[in-house]
Amino acid sequence: MSDLKNKIKKWLKIIIEFCLNPRLLLCFGIGWMITNGWAYIATALGAWLGIDWLFGIGATYLTALWIPFTPEKIITVIIAIFLLKRLFPNDKKTLERLYKMKESIKSTAKKYKSKRKEKKLKIMALKKAKLEYMQKRQQKQKRRRSIAKKSRKFNRA
Predict the structure, then answer these.
(1) pLDDT tens, residue by residue, 55-97
(2) Domain coordinates of the chain in residue numbers?
């Protein structure tokens, strides 16, 4: 239990250090302003100044953001990483963490794909074995029927 607790603490420390990096926070804020912030500002200004079309555009976009499965959050993170690489190319620590995360995701995906492939192969082997079993069973049944037919003919004669 203590080992699991230490792993969780280590993992949380890495994530907190990564997420609370001031440079990443700045880039994330800029990315958020590009994807969402303008709509909040437009809605507020439209309501405050009485500009109906500005309020309508901002409110419509914000409404669309609250629909489940909008890619806005993913796009915000992608923009933040792009800006981090462009604005702070010398921030080796954060960029190294991003690279390690990317490699970790790739290796996990490869493991998942290989497990999935193994599972498919096992299923195919089981299906093949079942098919062979069924074919043998049918052949036995045919032999039994033909033997039964022959014995009926023999008994009649």
Answers:
(1) 999 999 999 988 888 888 889 989 998 898 888 888 888 888 8
(2) 2-89
CA 22, 24, 25, 30 torsion: positive or negative? positive
Alpha-carbon distance of 118 to 21, in angstroms, equals 41
Burial of 2 (0-12, 13-18, 19+ CB in 10 A): exposed
Buried-state track 20-49, b at ≥16 Cβ within 10 A, e below 16: ebeebeebbebbbeebbeebeebbeebeee
Tell me which residue has tokens 């299906």: 127
Sign for the pseudo-dihedral over CA of 16, 21, 22, 24: negative
